[in-house]
Amino acid sequence: MTVDLGLLRVEGTMFQTRTRRRLIPARLAFTAILTVGGGCSTFNGWPDPTSRREPVAPSLLQAEQRIDDLDRIMTANGTIGVKSPDVWGQDRLAKFRSEYETQMAQWLKVGFKGVINASISRNEADAKRVQLAAGLSDPTAKTTAATDDAAKSMLAALSSMGSSNSAATAAATATASPAPMERTATVLEPTVVLDEHSNYLNHLNQLRRINAGDDLTDRPGYGLYLVRIPVTLTPGPKSRRGRGAIITVSAKSLMVKDTLRYTLRNAVINETVGSLTQAICNDADKEGDPNSGPGMGPISLVAFADSEVYYGPENIVFLRKEAERQLAREFNDEPYHRSARVSEWLRGELEASYSLLEQSVAPPAVASGQSAERGDPLERIAALVVQRDFDGVAKLRQGGLGDSSVLLAGGAQASTPGDPLAVQRRKAVGLFGFALRIQAAALNARLKQDIVDQLPELKLEQLRNVNFFDPNATDDAIQLFGRYVNAKWPLRVYAIEPVIAQQNVADAVGRRSLSALDLLGGVPLGPFRAAGAFSTDRRISEDEAAIRLNPTMVGFGAGESTFGWIFYPRLQTTRTPYRSLSTAASRLIHAQLPQGDKEQSIEPGQRECTALIVMPNFIPKIEFVTVANWFRTGDLNERQASNIERSSDLASRLVEAEDVLNRVQSAGEFRPEELQIALERLNQLKSLMPTQRMVVRVPFTGDVNDSRIFCSRGGQLRPALLAWHGKPPEPGGEATIFLEGKNFSVHDTHVIAGGKPAESVLVSRNLMQVTIAKEALSTLNADGAPLMDVSVATPNGASNHLLIRMRPTQSQNAQLNTAARTPEAPKPELVGPPWPPSQTPPPPPSPDPAVVRASDAKPPADATKVQK
């Protein structure tokens, strides 16, 4: 055994102790005891403080020993492993939630059936018997031993007969006793049935409410995520019997540097796409999708009536022609989805042109050594848009490309016009940049006003110079946006599953009570010998049977973002106690059997734990912090170290082993894989630590966000229909199409198509499959063409009307094809005197059979005769 006071560690072959947290005097005293006491240690004297020894690099063997020590400690105490959470987005969950709602609605129609969950059966039997016997005897004769023996034999026969009769009577009584009543034969009181039915409906609706989510779940900017956290329990010798496990989780949303940039990008592009699509497709001269009215909603930044004024009517006409030129093939092949194709084309153009907007709002470059003046260049445009200063916005469109109707996003003058096609593309790109700039300015004004509403300590004047659209936003702007997001969209744990997982145990209790009294006697009565027997039996039995629910897994939640689960052992039979003196004494003192909760063993394995989390749908990451621990199920007063202290001790051992492994320099003495294996084993133990911090990426569902997310007003949950996809419906035929829109609800969504209910299947929050019935009626437009009117209603309101141009039936197509193949009737040709080319021809005379001939007829031989 060696003692090294320089390292303040005592190492021995028989034991090893850690003295990290002990005081130095205690170390010195312990070292002195080891030195003086007994020949088993050698003390080489105090080290010379002036001598300097070079630090010796630890070997790989020492590092592996420390890793093995940590492994043995964790294995003995048991581990609670928490896997990295899996996350499902709101779009994926919409289908599952819709099916759940459908199934629960069917259960609602089935109704409630009254069933008794417990039964008690009591039996009581009482029997009394009196038996008498007599025999003739000589009164003058003396009682002899033989006579006494005869009397005893008679009494014995009488007794045996009485006992047999008693058993027969008891059996007959038990047979005659009524059997316990069946559960189905019991009838509940009508009021009790109504109360139980009410509880059944309330619980059913409670489950449906949890599945549907609250109204904040559907709020713009929020997303519902299903988080699956598998927990693996591996009990050790110290935590296997009479122990349970508990895990506590806290969640927090994490923003990244580009969250602000991409959130504003999606909102501006989506708003611009909706505004320009309606303006371009609102052309009465083109036979395309019918105008279904404004679908952007009442809280759009730029009203539909203002879009033509802001962008310029000549610019709208130019974009319409540009769309027809680039989408000519699609419009000719399939003209029924004009607005959807225009929307896709606009989205691609705006995505490519967004860099121009970022260039225009970025601060100008300055020379080195000078500070750049950071301001918000969108403030002036935002003031014009908010005040609806149409003249001021029209002045902004002047300049650029030599055209007074368009302005480049950066405000720079274009080069000299060259290729006509290039000029046309520059004009389109400039117009896209200007439209993005208008929408970005309006969004910027709404964002700043909403920040002031959510953070009352701020004033609007303090945000005048904050530039949120700068691609290299300042730290102050990012932190301010983070405070705003946490205030408006706090992360909330909505539901925890399972709320309780329990084991159904058939709990039966039987009690038996038996009391009996037998009297037997014989006396001489003159010449007779008399004997009598009296017997009474009383039997009482009670049977109780019920279903006991043994909780094995219980979920809990606290606050907004803290939740967790508690794991209990499953019910098991009590093991046979040891036949020892202490066990017998304990049973005599306590007069009871061993407690079952101390005898149960928790089963190793993985538990499925899920939680529904509501958080902003544009935040890319969630941070989870987990704390796990074992606890006793029988004794609540157990003295044990706290979770944090025990975790800190294991963490210090882990850090020490990691430090030793990093300083290993003798890895060349072993296989090349040894160092890598030790590193991997250390990482495995790190994943099994009782405290964990995990950062998980979540699926993005904020691609459809628009300006509504920055509006604190209500009325944002109303559904809206934007486009449709699929084969055009035919009059009198069944058709299946997809509806694209916003705010579709998993709870109670209804679709009306052609005045008839349509069957709908929810694909996501923004997409729905609809089957139009054959009985759906068409609506004729002004030209007499049939249209299909589709609308959607949810508990939050009704949508706009989406008009679908219907396709002619096969019979109508056959008539049109026949008419196209039949040659037209020849037009009549008028014959008259010629006139000079310089003169205007006179109006044609009224048709006269004498001067009109068919085109297939032969002309007359002499035209002058005809003229005469």
TrEMBL record:
Source organism per UniProt: Paludisphaera borealis
Region (Disordered): 812-868
Biased composition, class Pro residues, residue ranges: 831-848
Name the UniProt record assigns to this protein: Uncharacterized protein
